[in-house]
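Researcher: I'd like a structural prediction for the single chain below. Treat it as a standalone chain; there are no partners to consider.
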Amino acid sequence: MDVRATGAEPPRSVLARGLSLLDAFGSADTELNLTELAARTGLPKPTAHRLLSELVRWGGVERTPSGYRLSMRLFVLGQRAPRPRGLREAALPYLEDLYEATHENIHLAVLDGTDTLFLEKVTGRRSMPIVSRVGGRLPAYCTATGKLFLALGPPERLERVLAGGLVHYTPHTIVMPGLLQRELARTADRGYAVNREESEAGVSAVAAPVLDHRRQVIAAISITGNVCRLDLDRLAPAVRTAALALSRELARENAGTLEMGIPR
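Model: Treating it as a single chain, here is the predicted structure.
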């Protein structure tokens, strides 16, 4: 679940205030009432109500009997973003192959600020039910996918995470900076990351990085399931193979685009 501050200083422009109302919805929120939206954005209730009415007319928000919810129009708009859409389309065959081989939850994630953001999820009846969903996010430091962005990214990325504080999500969450740094060093050495009940009780994961043509981490693929059922070290080669194959495909696409003289 997203943790959002209340009573924040509201943005100044009308556009920014309207967008702040949309951004107030967390990954676990199906709907929010006017009081909650005003508190999360720092907007006065009359202002929030007026802007919400505008968003309803535009189609970005829908009224419910008890409040407001985000509309399907925002989902459609999000599908037009070229980079996430292209990455998801390229990754989906590899995610589906991993699912067929494991029947566990398979994720494609990217970094968004200091969170890991799930772009795609392949699951089924035999997979363990877990909290993750497409469009949802979790702190990078307590997820297998997120650890890859911290371990293989620039040092200032980890500095921002540590400055924001490490919070317990389960008794197994690593909240000591020194311990987290050692865990990230092991992650970089072995080329894959693991999460042992650090973001959700009873759930473990193993993840591998997806690299671009410059060998920079742009995404991560993970296998997630029951801690008692998953042998993370045994599954690591499978997820690494899928991530490597996707990395090569993206590199070939980039090379072809450059050859045609198409700017990126």
